[in-house]
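Hi D.,

Good news: the full-assembly prediction came through. Inputs first.
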Amino acid sequence: MGFFDTFKLSRLKEGLTKTRDSLVAKVNRLVFAKGKIDKEFLDQLEEILISCDVGVDASSRILDNIKEKAKSHKYESPEELDELVRSEIAENLFQTSHDVDDPFQLVSQNKPYVIMVVGVNGVGKTTTIGKLAYNYKSSGKKVLIGAADTFRAAANEQLEVWAKRADVQIIQQMQGSDPAAVAFDTVQAAKARETDIVIIDTAGRLHTKTNLMEELKKIKRVITKVVSDAPHEVLLVIDATTGQNAIQQAKQFNDAVGLTGIVVTKLDGTAKGGVIFAICNALKIPVRFIGVGEKIDDLQPFNSKKFVEALFEKEQP
Amino acid sequence: MFETLTEKLDGALKKLRGQGRISKENTEEALREVRRVLLDADVHFNVVKTFIENVQTKALGQEVISSITPGQFIIKIIYDEIVALMGTTQAEITFSNEIPSVIMVAGLQGSGKTTFSGKLARLLKSKGRHPLLVAADVYRPAAIDQLEVLGQEIEVPVFADRKASALEIAKKSIQFAKENARDTVIIDTAGRLAIDEEMMREVENIKSAVAPDEILFVVDSMTGQDAVNTAKAFHDKLDFDGVVLTKLDGDTRGGAALSIRSVVGKPIKFVGIGEKLDALEPFYPERMASRILGMGDIVSLVEKAQQTFDQKKAEKLQQKLVKAQFTLEDFYDQLQEIKKMGSLSQVLSMIPGANKLGNLNDVDEKELKYVEAIILSMTKDERNKPEIINGSRRQRIAKGSGTSIQEVNKLLKQFFEMQKMMKNFSKGKNFARMLGQRFGR
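Then the structure:
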């Protein structure tokens, strides 16, 4: 139940048009142009995969598998070869899946339910929070946002605009104040106001800055002080155009504050986004949402099967 | 910066050491490693391909100079090739003879345009120009507020008009600059996803309306393979003059830098290395290549020092660094100056060999305070001749500084190590020999 029912495959497909064009359509053209698997075919396939940020490891694995399969399975026509290559890629993009059935489902009935949102600079944290708040609000929940990005100039103003769009309340302090104090105030206020969901925005930070990661830990500790099992969710936001550094980001944020999920944003803007596979394969953290547009309702629950389906489904003739 | 790439190249190149002669076989294996390293670093596939081909051709086509090993020879070729890939010259901003000069800043969402605009304004102001920041991003919530706050911080006026279109704002700002004696206009345009035709048209229109003297394309150094396509898309529309690489203070391998440079053919002019408004540096291809190969960047450090201290002091520091006559007394003086230069890790990353001391990103700025306290608890003799510091002296210093003997020991150990590194560096008579020491472990 829940929002998963509203999962719109067509919307997802639309958002993934670019990725589909640069990955699936290219593979398709390659198959029909070559008609057989040889060194040149494999070289070009590797180029297509790596160009999509799938990563060297995943690419080599897919190539090896295709080589093996081609030996054991005879293919008579380009169509059959296409089928073989297509299914190999689809199967291998996600080695394992840690999908969550309904990413909007709350893992705890305790109120307030606290979600902390973290990430490096410029990935779309604030936008994601706006979209999250909108979704929870639309399902009848009372939502409160905590503006704990007290570092970046005008971060408050930006969040305010999104809060207004989502029609939810916001707690904020002056720029430069202690972010942990803002988080504390927000969760306290949520308790007093009997709010269902609290979303804490944090300042963008590079995962290599020890002091800033310590600050993040402190924010988390302070939240736990107010509500003992909170934060219930810690979401990492990653920009889909990021290269292999995304894995480092996920690893180090996870080490610092223990992630419960990942949100991949700006998927509609990139022809690539292959890093989503790399993240899924390298880490045991579920990708929960993907951002496929700039509108407030453009946040999609992520499901690896549906994702591959949307990518690989044959065009209607 | 680039640490990961450096470490990985280190690993790949180790295999090359000790080989008697260059053969197709022994280079092939090493180059496959290098290829992998570069791909992992997000260098674009085709750029990597060309790079590997070039290195291979050069390695096989030339005779090995007898004084160096084949490994060093290939490292030299790789170094030269990386430098060539990133462009060989450093570039400056073009200013017009007429007033005002117009600089336009464009790039994808979240790449760091607004922060860069603030940093650039600060830099130009410190060089005696009178910049005007223009808030032409009318779409992103609070983008105008952000620029206004930055403007206040660096005391540079910001031109904004919350009712006008981006195009109108850009046009009006030129007039405003003329009337208010601002000689440089920096236009911060709206971020876009590159696919957004409408927004791309907007920047095109702004470009034709204000005829910028300089168009800078801002790109996140963590961008993957798509960096090349994005850069191309912007280049087709804007024909920009230079690239700004942001967020390079993270652990990204920054391969995008290499690819964009070689595919679009425009120089990288600045790199963003921190969130503070002074964390902007010019891009030096040779130095960056040196960093990639783990050679440190002493020239950059000295130059940065020059900006902060006066010339005389800088010369003294340079001499001391080279002769390794660096004492704790100097170290304390420099610490004070370093604070003015930027973060400690940033400065340390430019010292040759310093990256072997551990992950520089782990340097906590607060630790500086302890270091200061420890040094201040020493006598002058101790600071000038740290080797005389024995057990009881250590105990006294620890007590005096409110730290522990372990911490005093740690500082001394690090200091001696640093001294040693510098000594090695100044002894290195030539490039190849230095590399031999670097990779010879």
